[in-house]
Design goal:
mainly alpha; single chain; disordered N terminus; about 85% helix; 18 helices
Length: about 450
């Protein structure tokens, strides 16, 4: 297979061992890993929804959203720093990155435990207190993960990275299903998540090790990580508000049952965009970062090729998902989750804007010290929260979903403006993508 691919790329003018070849192989492995992960996730949720009620998923979604908030609000971009730095071959830098990662994991765990009781009182859900306190073990364990994972991403060595992710995810899902089957309780999801984190951290040191972990805080390395990490921290805070923060806001407005159904629809709607995001993080960002260091004048052409692939390969996936949404939900879930089909139709279409934005976001993160990226995420988050609340007030849960779509469109316009300022915008391709999304939306609205 690899020999055939190499011959085809040589015939196409792509040198074996080049950045283009690594990107092609990386994308292929990312697709394989994502497809496998999607099958595992879908199979897992189908089984779990037969055992647990929508309210259980709503409660877990709320707890995980709050955990994600604390985690993102303490994110200093360690993995991103390793991908961008020129010191990745320096053990002092890598050991410092691992030490900061461990300290951050401990800090997140302590903060989640402190906030567990106030959050439970705020939402009026007494079970949130013990759930959050237990879930706090997950970031504590994950802090000990091998930095070899970040090195593999930097070097676009996605075969071992993909196999690691798929194996860890499959084992975690299996453990969770077994425990849920025995307990028939939301606690099964929590215990499965904790055991899965222990398993994946252990596998990371066996699968992609980086020497023997050493506690070290070298001042230049700390300074480099934290200076860049300051902007990443700000961007991550905004990212929480626009991402998992939506679930925290929806937790005030929706019953747990509807929140759980919304969570199922959102999980399915992210299928194409999650894959596209994985390609962005694992292939496009390292490749663009390398181009920025070596040949910055080639960035616009590289982004153009990426956008052509996205519009040609990914957007039809969103349109197809929106078209079959109700049939898909009716096929794999029971009647309690039927309304997820209507939610999925619109969420899938609006996710298309996030895919159009992805190449620009990765280029902005690669080119700048983080200020422009933080601006992009900040505008996105502010629009999402404002549009979510306004939409809900005007039209209930469907108004909130359309608000999410309006915010995604505005965020895409901001990314286009920043890309134009940076000299790597391709507006005609964006117009084509927006036209396809608009056409799909018109069909969906006419059918309701």
């Amino acid at each position: 297979m690899k020999a055939l691919a190499t011959r085809l790329m040589t015939a196409a003018g792509i040198n074996p061992g080049s950045r283009s070849e690594r990107a092609i192989y990386g994308t292929a492995w990312t697709f394989g890993g994502y497809a496998g992960g999607l099958v595992i996730r879908l199979a897992g949720t189908v089984i779990l929804t037969r055992i647990l009620a929508p309210e259980d998923f709503g409660l877990l979604n709320l707890a995980m959203a709050l955990l994600a908030g604390v985690s993102l609000l303490s994110d200093v971009g360690i993995q991103t720093s390793i991908v961008r730095t020129s010191r990745a071959d320096d053990p002092a830098f890598m050991h410092t990155a691992w030490t900061i990662q461990v300290i951050r994991g401990f800090a997140v765990a302590v903060l989640v435990v402190i906030l567990a009781k106030p959050m439970a009182d705020l939402y009026g859900e007494a079970l949130l207190w013990p759930l959050l306190s237990a879930i706090a073990l997950i970031p504590l364990v994950q802090g000990f993960q091998s930095v070899g994972l970040s090195l593999a991403q930097r070097e676009v060595r996605l075969r071992p990275l993909t196999l690691f992710s798929m194996t860890g995810f499959a084992l975690t899902q299996t453990i969770t299903i077994i425990i849920v089957w025995q307990l028939v309780s939301v606690w099964g999801l929590v215990i499965g998540g904790i055991l899965g984190a222990v398993l994946q951290v252990t596998l990371s040191h066996l699968w992609l090790p980086y020497r023997r972990p050493v506690w070290q805080l070298e001042r230049p390395a700390v300074r480099e990580i934290m200076v860049f990490g300051g902007w990443v921290l700000l961007a991550s805070g905004f990212q929480f508000l626009g991402g998992d923060g939506r679930k925290a806001v929806l937790g005030f407005m929706l019953p747990l049952e509807i929140l759980g159904i919304f969570g199922i629809a959102e999980m399915l709607s992210r299928a194409p965009s999650d894959f596209c995001g994985a390609v962005g993080r694992r292939v496009l960002f390292p490749s663009i970062s390398e181009l920025m260091r070596e040949r910055p004048q080639a960035v616009r052409a590289a982004l153009f090729r990426a956008q052509v692939v996205i519009i040609g390969a990914f957007l039809p996936g969103f349109l197809l998902l929106a078209l079959i949404a109700q049939d898909l939900v009716d096929l794999v879930y029971d009647d309690r989750y039927a309304e997820a089909g209507a939610f999925l139709t619109f969420l899938a279409l609006y996710s298309g804007f996030l895919v159009l934005e992805m190449p620009y976001a990765e280029a902005i993160l690669s080119k700048t010290k983080g200020a422009s990226y933080a601006l992009l995420i900040g505008v996105t988050a502010s629009c999402r929260i404002a549009a979510l609340v306004i939409g809900f007030q005007l039209g209930g849960v469907y108004g909130a979903i359309h608000g999410i779509g309006a915010a995604a469109a505005i965020s895409h316009l901001v990314s286009l403006a920043l890309a134009y300022r940076g000299g790597f915008a391709n507006p005609w391709l964006d117009l084509l993508g927006v036209t396809l999304i608009g056409g799909g939306l018109a069909v969906a609205l006419s059918a309701t």
